[in-house]
Amino acid sequence: MVDIYTDYLICSFGQASATGLARLLDHQISHDAVTRFLSTAPQTSANLWRVVKPLVRAVEREEGVLIIDDSIEEKPSTDENELVSWHYDHSQDRTVKGINFLTALYHAGEVSLPVAFDLVTKTVAYTDAKTKKMKRKSALTKNERYRMLLRVAVHNQVRFKYVLNDVWFASSENMKFVKHQLDKEFVMPLKENRKVAAGGDEKKRGQYVAVSQLAMEAATTRQIWLEAVDFPLLLTKEVFTNEDSGVGVRDLVSSDLTHSFDQQTKLYQKRWSIEVYHKSLKQNASLEKSPTRTTTTQRNHLFASLCAYVKLEALKIKAGVGHFTIKSKIYLSALKAAYAEVVKLNPQPLAA
């Protein structure tokens, strides 16, 4: 049933429902059977690892990177529960209703595979001090979940050297965790107000300044000390042009002090793979197309979407084309079949 359902998610272009799958298969499998499948015990990150492990072992390499980020499966019309809740979406700068999940994405060569995931559940009820309304919050912070995913990847012996993430996970605690406890390297961006010391002597004297105020030319590197981090970091200042033609600055720090500017910035560019992954999950693996209503069926549909993504990545390796090309080929085949059906139903041309 997992194979059947994930194939359905890949070929579907509309709502992905139990009834829709049953109709697609001419009711050889009933919609009740699909519902029972989605209603079984919730599938976990360990189940995903069993699915993706053979493919990871085939492509992994010592220089691989592990990228951590979160995304939201929007479900605006679904009743709120501990899984479907309100979350701040920094990409939209507003709160949205849906399922917030974190992924550890393994990237090696041109292949990107989810090796662990975690769902944000808001199980703690509390009263908002300002509005006096009842709200929900998670018992774990996202940074705690971030570290948990990294532990899982190391426990599963995934071969990687670097951890990449965006500025939201670039805390001092996370940096020390990656370097000291995992014995891995990282590249992370800094917010412009993070405090840095220009050298060891300045660190000893407590002379920290905001990284945005540090005198440094663009496209250069220098060794610095970040406040609350007990080892030196390599800082690069990257200046780029935004889509609106404005100038942006990104301060990247790495625990690997051997990088050149090009090495550090090119390595961090691999973090974009997780944005592509999120987009493919939503557009090619029917992540947001399910009308599921219970926490169990919602969890299992999300798990199935992750498995559908893994299938697409395996197809990409085999066929040498991307997910969106694969999906467009499926759509064209479906369109041809639909056109042939219309011709068959109405063989007489219109009168001139």
Could you please describe the fold and organization of this structure?
With 352 residues, the protein is an alpha+beta fold. It folds into two domains: 37-166 and 274-352, no CATH class; 184-270, no CATH class. The protein is 40% helix and 24% strand. It is built from eleven helices and 13 strands. The protein has helices at residues 2-11, 18-24, 31-38, 45-59, 142-155, 172-181, 200-205, 261-269, 272-284, 295-319, 323-345; strands at 65-74, 85-89, 94-108, 111-119, 124-127, 134-137, 162-165, 185-190, 195-197, 209-210, 221-226, 233-241, 247-254. Strand 7 (162-165), helix 6 and strand 8 form a beta-alpha-beta unit. Helix 1 (2-11) crosses helix 10 (295-319). The model has no long low-confidence stretch (mean pLDDT 95).
Task: Name the descriptors.
352 residues; 40% helix; globular; 13 strands; alpha+beta; eleven-stranded mixed sheet; 2 domains; two-stranded antiparallel sheet
Helix content: 25-40%
* Element pattern in H and E: HHHHEEEEEEHEHEEHEEEEHHHH
Instruction: Name the structural class.
Output: alpha+beta
Number of domains: 2
Any idea what the radius of gyration is? 24 Å
What composes the largest sheet? 11 strands, mixed
Number of strands: 13
Mean pLDDT equals 95
Terminal-residue CA separation: 51 Å
Low-confidence stretches: none
Tell me, briefly, the overall form.
Answer: globular
Helix segment count?
11
User: In percent terms, what proportion of residues is strand?
Assistant: 15-25%
